[in-house]
Amino acid sequence: MTKKSDFYILSATNMDEVHLFACKLIEKAFHKGHKIFVYCETEQEAHALDELLWSFEPKSFIPHHLQGEGPNTPPPVQIGFGEHASGFNDICINLSQKIPAFIQQFQRVFEIVPQIEEQKQIKRQHFRYYKEQHYTVQSHTISN
After folding, report:
1. Fewer CB within 10 Å, N or C, the chain?
2. Are strands 91-94 and 108-113 parallel, antiparallel or unpaired?
3. Could you give phi then psi for residue 29, rounded to 5 degrees?
């Protein structure tokens, strides 16, 4: 089965908007029955996203936890920043500036591209990496 990478190109100009869009992606994938691992740049970003998932949509409930916390059998959504994504191989949402070493275990990768020049440059490198690894790569322009 061919692995896929989807790039979501936003009109967003800050990381708060990126995180809000990530929550919407997580919610959509969760409701389609996927298991999602969200890879964050830092522990602080992981905690912020964890909090946002509880509050971004008042009527929404997405069972999730931070990597290393919670039950031995993790809920369908896990947020991490470390070197492992144990128990997950479906979807990885990569919010980091790097591609984690474990990325190959996932069938699908989502990358979010804001209108921040440094971030755009990094995500272009990620795009090239996935192409070189023979992923099916798609771009989606998201308008507000």
Report:
1. N
2. parallel
3. -65, -40
- Cα 65 to Cα 81, 125, 138, distances in angstroms: 12, 29, 29
User: pTM (2 decimals)?
Assistant: 0.95
Residue 144 confidence class, pLDDT cut points 50, 70, 90 = low
- What is the predicted pLDDT for the residue at 138? 97
In whole angstroms, give the CA distance from residue 69 to residue 78: 9
Q: What DSSP assignment string belongs to 17-58?
A: HHHHHHHHHHHHHHHTT--EEEE-SSHHHHHHHHHHHHHSST
As a whole number of angstroms, the distance between CA 114 and CA 122 comes to 11
pLDDT tens sequence across 17-42: 999 999 999 999 999 999 999 999 99
SS3 67: coil
